[in-house]
Amino acid sequence: MMRYSSVVVFAAGVLAWSAGFLPASPRGFNLNSTLSGNSVLGSLKQGDPAEGKKIFTTVCFACHTVGKGKLVGPDLAGVTKRRSREWLHKFIPNSTKFIASGDKDAKAVFEEFNKMVMPPQALSAAKIDSVLAYIDSVGGDAAAGGGVDMSKPEGDPKLGAQYFQGTRRLRNGGPSCISCHGMDHPEVTGGGTMAVDLTKVFGRMGAAGIKGILSAPPFPLMKKAYDGRPIEADEIAALQAFFYDANQRASEAKAGVGMGWKYGLFLLFGGLGGLIVLLLLFGALWKDRKSGPVNQRIFERQLGAADVKD
Ligand code: HEC
Ligand code: HEC
Q1: For residues 246 and 191, what is the distance between their CA atoms, to the nearest angstrom?
Q2: Alpha carbons 72 and 278: distance in angstroms, whole number
Q3: Pick from 196, 195, 201, 199: which is nearest to 186 by CA?
Q4: How many domains does the structure of the chain reveal?
Q5: 197 or 21: which leads in pLDDT
Q6: Of the residues 103, 125, 147, which one is the last residue of a structural domain?
Q7: Domain-embedded: residue 117
Q8: Long-range contacts of range 187-190, CB-CB < 8 Å, 24 or more positions apart?
Q9: Nearest-5° angle of CA 224, CA 131, CA 116?
Q10: Last residue of a domain, one of 129, 147, 165
């Protein structure tokens, strides 16, 4: 009897959960976000476009436009028509997790934008609604143009290398990039491993994307490093030129595959040759130290003893 009733309660719970009456994770249950999120009032218009504009123009604009074409990420005009609210509320706070969950559309945009990771946005459900309300208030559809502008920037790459390395100080006292970022360039030695390697960053986001990120860093760690110590426009221009140069060198090095291929073979056979030499050397040493297995000698001695007895 007891068991029967607990089965009924369990089944009722499952039914209620699948009908959306209960939150999927009771621990994170939050009335406010459930109400303003997608589950209950999903079809109603929500959010404050003025608040949304403020968020968009301080965070998202580094990588997105509304109706002016692609930047680092897609043009967000009309995104609420392309995607469901539920989808947007999953993508914006943590796209990496959402992509990993196997959502096909999320995976497709990720591939389309060179597997560039959109940084997780620590925004409440209500704030996400406000950003979406702002995007809706601008209206229109995504522009066809845009995309990563690959043309050569104006700045001086040598100066950029110095800012990157810290051999020339940033005017407002921000830290040099090399304390967190690595870079493969003849003028740069060493580099941090705390953040992504920037050798090919120009190829990923072009001059506009770099400018967006440096004028308002969207990554928490980097944002903190330059808080109150903004990077000036001429410094950004020099860094853009430096990243252009680094990306150019990297693609030229890659174009020289013939040499890389021969070098690889050289390493492979060099390694094999070394291995053979080592094996021969160990073989010789082994031979000097022990001429036969110890057990063999004991065995022979015992055989001898047996012979004497017989
Ligand atoms: C550092 C750059 C960057 C920032 C900052 C950024 N995004 Fe993104 N965003 C991307 C990229 C890149 C993509 C393309 C998908 C991918 O590569 O994961 C993307 C994709 C999206 C998508 C999916 C669009 C579609 O067509 O499916 C939405 C929605 C979005 N971002 C919203 C936002 C909002 C809202 C903000 C600000 C709160 C923001 N993003 C901040 C880079 C960024
Ligand atoms: C305190 C550490 C820190 C410093 C200093 C720093 N960054 Fe970053 N940066 C980060 C982090 C963290 C990220 C996010 C990506 C990651 O996790 O690697 C990032 C991301 C970036 C990106 C986006 C890369 C991509 O492919 O997504 C660019 C561009 C960038 N930084 C440029 C710079 C430049 C230029 C400087 C120097 C003026 C600089 N950063 C200084 C920590 C730092």
Answers
A1: 14
A2: 52
A3: 199
A4: 4
A5: 197
A6: 147
A7: yes
A8: 187/158, 187/161, 188/161, 188/164, 189/165
A9: 60
A10: 147
Whether residue 265 sits in one domain with residue 251: no
Is residue 109 lining ligand 1, measured as CB closer than 6 Å? Answer: yes
Q: What is the mean pLDDT of residues 266-283?
A: 69
Q: Cβ < 6 Å from ligand 2: which residues?
A: 116, 175, 177, 179-181, 194-196, 198, 201, 204, 210, 213-214, 219, 221-222, 225, 231, 239
Give pLDDT tens digits for 7-38: 445 554 444 444 444 444 444 344 444 444 44
Q: Do 15 and 96 sit in the same domain of this protein?
A: no
Name the closest-CA residue to atom 2, ligand 1: 63
The better pLDDT of the pair 216, 306 is held by: 216
Q: Tell me how far apart the alpha carbons of residues 199 and 308 are, in angstroms, rounded to a whole number.
A: 81
Residue 152 in domain: no
Q: In this structure, which amino acid lies at residue 292?
A: G
Tens digit of pLDDT for each residue in 90-118?
999 999 999 999 999 999 999 998 778 88
Cβ proximity of 126 and 32 under 8 Å: yes
- 56 with 143, same domain? yes
Task: Please state the atom number of ligand 1 nearest to the C-alpha of residue 109.
Answer: 15
Please indicate, yes or no, whether residues 264 and 184 belong to a single structural domain of this protein. Answer: no
Domain that holds residue 266: 258-309
Residue ranges of alpha helices (H) inside the chain are 2-18, 31-36, 49-58, 79-82, 85-91, 95-100, 104-112, 125-138, 157-165, 201-215, 220-225, 233-255, 257-289, 294-309
